Queue: 3 jobs
Job 1
Amino acid sequence: MKHWGKQVLGIMLLAAVWQAASWSGIWSSYILPPPGKVAGALWAMMDSGVLWQHIFVSLRRVVQGFSIAFLLAFAGGTAAYELPGMEEYYKGFLEFMRNVPPISLIALLILWFGIGETSKIIIIVLASFFPMYLNIRKGFLSIDKKLLEVGRAFGFGRWRQFTRIVLPWAVPDILIGMKVGLGYSWRAIIGAEMIAASRGIGYLILDAQQMSRSDKVVAGILTIGAVGIACDRLFQALISRMAVRERTEGAAAHENQGFM
C-alpha cells in the first residue's frame, strides 16, 4: 500500500503541474489541453466503444507478432546451443539486422505486402525477436558444465539433458527476454499503425492529430502507457507465480528426499 500510495501521489503531482501549466495561459488549450478535457475525450471514446475496438486490434497484432518472434527466437537460441558451429554463418546477418530500426523497413514492407496485417506483424517480429533471441541464447550457453556432467552420470541423453537441465537453467533469461520483447512489440506496433493502418491505437492518435483534436492525441498516448503497464504487470505476475511454484516444488522434493 505504501508503494502504491507513492505512485498515486506522483501521478497527482504531475496532474497538478499539468493543470497549472494549462491555467497559466502560456500555451493554448489546443497545444496543451487541460486534464479535464483529456479525461472527457477519453471517457467519450470509452463510452462509445471506439477506444476498446482500437485497443483490441493493437493487442491482437502484438500477440500475433510476439508469438511468432518468440518461436523464432527460441529456435535460434536452441540452434546456437545445439549447433554452435552454424552460428558463424548467420551471426553477421543478425548483427546487421539488429542495428536496423524496424520502423525504417515499413516503406519496403508496404511495397512488398501492402498495408494489410502482414507488414505490421513483420514489424513486431523484427522489433521483439532480438531481445528474446539474445537472452534465450545467453541462458542456454551459460549452462554450468558440471550440471551436464551430472546428467551424463545419470545416463541422460541429449534430449533429456536439454529438457531437464538446460531449459530449466535458461528459464530466468527466457522470461527476461520475453518481458523486454513485449515492450519492444508495443513500441513497434504503435509506430507502424501511425504510418499505415486504418485501425489501432497508433491510427487513433494520427487520426486525432489530423482532425486537430489534441485532447484525443493525449488520450491515446495515455492509453498506450496504461495498456503497456497492464501487460507488463500481468507478465510480471506470471513470472512471480512460476517462481513461487518452482520454489514450492523444490522444497517438497527436498523434504521427500530427506524423508527417504
Note: The chain has ten helices and no strands.
Job 2
Amino acid sequence: MPIDPSAQVAPTARIHPDAEIGPGVRIGEFCVIESDVAIGAGCLLEPYVYIKRWTTMGTRNEISAGTVLGTDPLDKNFSGERSYLRIGSGNKIREHYTISRGTAPESVTELGDDNYIMTSGHIAHNCKIGNSTVIASCALIAGYVEMEDQAFVSGGVVVHQYSKIGRLAMIGGNTRVNSDVPPFFLYAGHDVVAKGLNVVGLKRAGYKASDVAVLKKAYQILYRSGLKLQDALAKIESDIPTPETLHLVQFIRRSERGICRE
C-alpha cells in the first residue's frame, strides 16, 4: 500500500498513487506529492509543501510551509531527464526553501542527516551536504557545492559553484564564498577570508582545549608562517599529526579551486 495506514493526510493534500508514504507521516493541507516520491516514517510536511518526482526522504524530517523539494535544476544544460534528490533523516527544512535535483541524467543532489536549514534559501543541483550542518536564512548554495559535516553557513551567504566547505568551518553573514574554505576555521569578509579558529563550534562539538590548541598551531603554520602552501602542509603533517590536522591537510590537497587566504 503506497500510503501507510498510520499516516495522517489532510483532505486537501494531493498525493500521486505511485508515491510511497511511510508510517506515522503527517501531511498538511494543500501539499502536493508527485509520483516516484518516497517519504520515510515519522516525517512532517506542513501546509503547502510540494515534493516533486524522483525525491526520496528518510525518517523524521520536518519540512515547513511553502518549501519545494526536487525542483528542476536552475541550469540551462538541463534536458529534463530523470535525476534525483536524496534526503537523509532527522533534517529540519524551514519555510520557503527550494532544493533542486541533479542536472545530468541519473545524477543526484544529496542531503545527509540532522541538518538544520533555515528560511528562504536555495540548495542547487548536484550539491552534497553532509550531516549536522546549519544553513541560515537567505543563504544561496550554488551547483556542485560540497559541505562537510557540522559546517555552519550564516545568513545571506552566497556560495559559488564547485566550492567546498570543510567540517566545522563557520562562515560569517553576507560573505561571498568564491574559493574553498578548509575545516575548523572561521571565515568572513565580502570575498571570503580566514579569520582564525571556529572556537565556539569546536567547543560545542566537544573538542578539548588541547585539541583546539593543536588546530590553532595548524592555523598559524598554514596562514602566518610565511611558508609556501605545500611546505606548510608538510610541516603540519610532520609536527602536529592528529586526525583533525591530517583531515585539514587532505582537504586542502584535494582542493581544485584553491583555498581562501587570511
Note: The longest strand covers residues 193-197.
Job 3
Amino acid sequence: MVRRLEERAGATWRVAKRGLDIVLSAAALCLLSPVLLFLASGVKAGSPGPAIYRQTRCGRGGQHFFIYKFRTMKVDAEDGTPRLAVPGDPRVTSFGRILRRYHLDELPQLWNVLRGDMSLVGPRPERPYFVVLIRRRNPDYDRLFAVRPGLTSLGMVRFGYASDLDGMVERSRLDMAYLSRQSALTDLRILAETARVVVKGKGV
C-alpha cells in the first residue's frame, strides 16, 4: 500500500512538473523575448556566424536531441574532437564571456523545455562523446537518463561549468543526488540558487 501511494505521488508530481515546465517556459519566452533579441544581436555583432547554434545531447532514456544555446565561441571552434571551454579560452568571444559568466547563453533552452526535450530542473545533459568518458569513471551515470535533463541542476548551481573530465564526473554525482530528492520544494530551491548564481555572475 505504501509503495503504491509513493508511486502515485511520483506519477502525480511528474505530470504536475511537466505542466509547470510548459507554463513557465512559455511565459518566460514571451516576457524575455526583447532580451533574447538583444542578446542575439550582441552575438551577431561580436563575431561572424549564427546567433544560436544547436548541439547534440543525451536526454531522457539516452535519446539524442538538439540543445539550443547562444553561440559564445568563434565559428568552427572545434577541429572535430569535442573540447570543453576552459578559463581564458581564446575560442570564446568577448560577448560570449559575458553570456557565459551570467549563464545567459542557456536561455534558448527554454524552447527545449517547452518542446519537452528538457525540464526547468533536472540533470544537465551532456554530449554523447563525453557521456562515454563519464561512464568509465561513474558506472551509475545512466541513472540520470531516468528523467528529463534540466535547464539548471543541482550540479550546475553547486559546481558550475566543468572545464575537464574530473569536473564533469563530480557534477554528474551531484546531479545523481537530485534523483533521490525530487520534489517541488527541491526544484524551487535549485531555481532560487540558480537565480543567485546568475546575479553573482559565477559562470566561466
Note: DSSP finds eight helices and four strands in the chain.
